[in-house]
Amino acid sequence: MSTAVDWGDLPTWLSAVAALSALAFAAVAVVVARRSLRIESRRDQVAVEASRRAQAILVSAWCDELGLRVRNASHSPVYQARLTVVDLAEPEAAPLHHVRADVLPPGAEATSHPAAVPGTAEPRVLVTFTDAAGVRWHRDAYGRLRELESRLTIAGAERMEAVHQHFSADLAARYGIALTCHTPDWPTRWQGYVRAGLDGTIADVLDAPNDTIAVLAEQRVIEPVVLAADQLDRFLPWTLQALTYQNRLYGVPLTAQVPVLISNLDLAPDAPATFEAIDDFAVQREPFHLLAIFAAAGGEIFGVGPDGTPDPNRFRGAAPTSIAAFESLAAVRPLRRRLDENGARQEFLGGRTPHLIGLAEDLMDARAAGLRCAVSAIPPFRNRNATRPYASVRGFLLSRRGANRLIARDLIPDYLARVDVARNQTAQLCMPSCLRDFQPGDRDLDVLRGGPDHSVPLPSHPRMLLIWRLLGETLNAILEGADPSASARRLDQRLGHVLGSAT
Questions:
Q1: Is 84 strand, coil or helix?
Q2: Which tens digit of pLDDT belongs to each residue from 285-330?
Q3: 29 by DSSP, 3-state: which?
Q4: Which of 21, 122, 332, 493 ranks highest by number of CB atoms within 10 Å?
Q5: Which of 363, 370, 371, 368 is nearest to 345 (CA)?
Q6: What is the pTM of this model?
Q7: Which residues contact 487 (CB under 8 A, 6 or more apart)?
Q8: What are the b/e assignments for 235-257, b being 16+ CB within 10 Å?
Q9: Is 392 helix (H, G, I), strand (E, B) or coil?
Q10: Residue 241 and residue 446: Cα distance in Å, rounded?
């Protein structure tokens, strides 16, 4: 048997080699073509990016002996320009100067703005503006140019979500910004803000009460806001002071409230002259509401500091008048019911009690339920000199770690601080306004707002969360039968330990 292998003839071999060569050349051609396509694509992207940045790169600002200088060397105006002078040597210090320019016209020469800059400073200018194509840009202290995303996220109370959505169309039309609003599902909002700041999920603008300012500022969750003099003049000074921590303003005021007595006129047609004249009432058993009753009994938890705001380091809860106020609270029978916010509201809305100690939200729910209501300040206890209750001032705070912080930095003063926007928001919420020219057309809202003659802003302290917990434990212990004098002294010691360890 033959074992020879048939290797074919020469023509067959040549044909096979030619086919393999053609295939190899085709593969090489595909690789070369793909590389060429990528190069061309990158070249096109660079050209598009250069075209997109063509106007923005011609806008610049700097400081010299003439002050703040800005130049738009393009052939078209830019809009909504915001220029902030900072000290490069002190990045955490307050801005040295701030200029708003709704339009920056084109020009070969720079325009000058007076700016008082200390001789020891290293001034640099942050510039944010919108180009002729509607794109928002930011140039940082080192001259780097960055396109900003036209998005903004606001986080806050549930009732605020619908209000913010109402303004989304206006924001889109005026600024080209897509607004997203959400209500965080956290048991304690400020703790949630701190956690969200750490994990990078925090919103750009935070709706929060003033007693959270110190905590959020110390945790570097929020940064100061910059308002021009005319913007500051729009708001009541005491509400601005409430949102100030260590001489830095951290928010634009939205609303201010004190707990009030809301009465069902069908069940209690006459306003009580003293607290003892209130037969029955419902109240949420938590410190903010309970301390309003405590103030009506002549008690004072904290003294005030040099700036006129409450200072947790000046505890006065163990003073004789405050101990007497604690004793008065312990004798009030309705306070023995443990009611949360919803429970207290339902007691009143269901007609099971003629009075509710509550806030604007409670009043609006009562009106929506068809109740005829009257609002009055919580009356003083008999033969007691009532002190001023605490007022909660809510504001819009600027998140330090929001994804669109630079957009928010401009939008808070330029939009949320506008009189018409502030007025419309509180009107939709049916809440008191913080504007100077507040004309509620609703006497009840005026009572709810309080003011320096009738209330004092809530204190703010880096340990405020723990302070509220200790106050809540003490108040509830007294209402459950604990000795008021011993409880107040124990609270004094515990606060001293907490606040002493914080310094």
A1: strand
A2: 999 999 999 999 999 999 888 877 888 888 898 999 999 999 999 9
A3: helix
A4: 332
A5: 363
A6: 0.84
A7: 326, 474, 477, 478
A8: bbebbbbbbbbeeebbbbbbbbb
A9: strand
A10: 19
Round to whole Å and give the CA distance between 232 and 240. Answer: 8
Inter-residue contact 416 to 394 (CB < 8 Å): no
Q: Which runs of E-coded beta strand occur in 222-284? A: 222-223, 244-245, 248-249, 251-257, 260-264, 282-283
pLDDT of 57 > 90? The answer is yes
- The mean per-residue pLDDT over the stretch 158-172 comes to 76
Q: Encode pLDDT of 485-501 as tens digits.
A: 999 999 999 988 888 75
The predicted pLDDT at position 117 comes to 80
CB 416 within 8 A of CB 493: no
First to last CA, the chain: 104
* Extended beta strands in 49-106, E state: 59-64, 67-72, 78-87, 97-104
Angle CA 428–434–437, to nearest 5: 95
Instruction: Indicate if the pLDDT at residue 1 is higher than 60.
Output: no
Strands (DSSP E) along 88-122, which ranges? 97-104, 111-113
* Rounded Cα distance, 142 and 21, in Å: 56
Helix, strand, or coil (residue 236) = coil
**Residue 241 to residues 210, 394, 433, 444, 464, Cα–Cα distance (Å):** 10, 12, 15, 24, 17
Q: What percent of the chain stands above pLDDT 70?
A: 90
- Amino acid at position 216, single letter: L
Distance CA 367, CA 350 (A): 13
Residue 285 identity (one-letter amino acid): R
Q: Alpha-carbon distance 472 to 288, whole Å?
A: 9
- Burial class of 233 by CB neighbour count within 10 A (0 to 12, 13 to 18, 19+): exposed
Report the alpha-carbon distance of residue 450 to residue 454 in Å, rounded: 6
All residues at 6 or more sequence positions from 6 whose CB lies less than 8 Å from its CB, including other chains: none
Q: Which one-letter amino acid corresponds to residue 215? A: V
